[in-house]
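Researcher: Let's continue the batch. This sequence belongs to Protein POLLEN DEFECTIVE IN GUIDANCE 1, and it's 594 residues. Same format as the previous ones, please.
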Amino acid sequence: MSLGSGGRKLSFELLSSDLTADDVDDTSPRSLPETSSDGRRRRRRRSKRKQGFQSPPIVEEEPRVDGSAAAATFRVTDLRSVVEKVCQSSDVEGSAASCVTRVGVELRQRSVAANGRLSAAASGDDATSSCGSSMRESVAAAAAAAADVIDAARRPEANGVLKKLEKDESLDWEKFIKENSNILGEVERRDNSPFRYFIGELYSGNSLRSTIAVGNDKKRQRVYNTMFHVPWRCERLIVAGFFVCLDSFLSLLTIMPARIVMTVWRVLKTRQFLRPNAADLSDYGCFIVLALGVASLQMIDISLIYHVIRGQGTIKLYVVYNVLEIFDKLCQSFGEDVLQVLFNSAEGLSTCSTDNATFELMRFLLDEAIAVVLLLVHSFVLLAQAITLSTCIIAHNNALLALLVSNNFAEIKSNVFKRVSKENLHNLVYYDIIERFHITAFLLFVLAQNILEAEGPWFDSFLINASLVFMCEVLIDAIKHSFLAKFNEIKPVAYSEFLEDLSKQILNEQTDDRQKDLTFIPLAPACVVIRVLTPVYATLLPSGPFIWRIFWILLWSILTYFILAIFKILVGLVLRCLAAWYINLRLTRKQHVD
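Model: Same format as before. Here are the structure tokens for Protein POLLEN DEFECTIVE IN GUIDANCE 1:
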């Protein structure tokens, strides 16, 4: 078993070299011959041990140049002295002494093995003769002496090393914290000098670096999308949708009357009444609804409603306008379902058998009655909204400005800060398109009222106010959709996809999802426009006999119809050409991307 400590090695070979023959014969039990005087020798040894003797100091070797461990020598008499001390130890240390005994036996066996004068046979005989207590004491003493030698060898002074280990200094906590200021995650204390602080701020870089981080290309693209791409594509979509609504409005005033006239002419010519198809029944239903709506609005006194709305002191004009706008959206949403049900009833009536004809007819009449009631309510709401806008424009107390600010910014507040999906944004754009068309109808109503009742130069004022209303609507739509796309992370290409769907609707291409189509009901706006333009046409009729007046009424009606038909043809053809061009453009770009 090798013992090493501090680069030094205890040499047990020196132990055998320093021992004399007399010492071995006197101290080592293994060197005693087996004679009959063993008892006398043991008694002599015990008497010597009782007398005690001084152990010579441990001899240390000079330190080697190569730094190798030095071996310490000691005499066997030292072991005896240590044995005497171990024997005087308490019984509590008995267990520890027994543990050291095994170490001492091993050390002693190595020491004896290194001695050439001791043989293996003598060691075996000595082991059998040292079964007594004196043998255990000697072994324990050897182990203790070996431990002392090891401790001495570990000491630098004992090995001849001049340099001593310096004593550890006491830990200065304040000094340690000062040298390691960030050990607790605290911010380093700055210089509190105002001048140095200001100079440091001047030469430290960007003045807003503490609150605004440096952007990248993605942030730049988001800024460009918010300012340029989204407003441009959104306005392009709204303008296209506006002309789609205008085309539907013109179809209601030109195509539907022409189809009804052709049906009546065919019946009068053939003198046979055949069951009409679904398209004819739908046209009949829409014509009845339109006629009843116009007749109902003709009985309403516009001036009375105007003075009632203008005389409101408790409820402001912009509050009335916002309430009417909410009802307009409700009627529009519900009117879509009502007309779809009416068209379904018309299709069922046209294809039903003779047995179910009565049931289908009753259901068609019920759906027609519901459509008439809803149209009357919706027409009155739009008329009241147009009168409110006319009142704000005519007033001279900045009522129009208050209306625009309250209405438009309330729309921004109710839409911008909400989580909107792509499908909801699609429907929101369609609502803005319909609203844009309704505002155009309201401005036409204001124009008609100025023609009938205004005195003095009024056209310049009307043009300025109409431009203000229209431009505010365009600006609010641009701001609303820009920030909706920004907050919901919707790319500008979404508006291009919406325009592509609208182009397919213009070309009557059946899409998989019909909910992507723009749904517009032109019946209520048509009723309001006809109600407003009727007094204007009445002023153009010359005075004279009733037949003469009927002639001029028919003349102006036919002339107006042809103007509207030509306008319808132009709008329809231009829309179809632009829709086909845009779809081809989208296909080309998709092929390049793929």
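Researcher: Any comment?
Model: The chain is about 70% helix and 0% strand.
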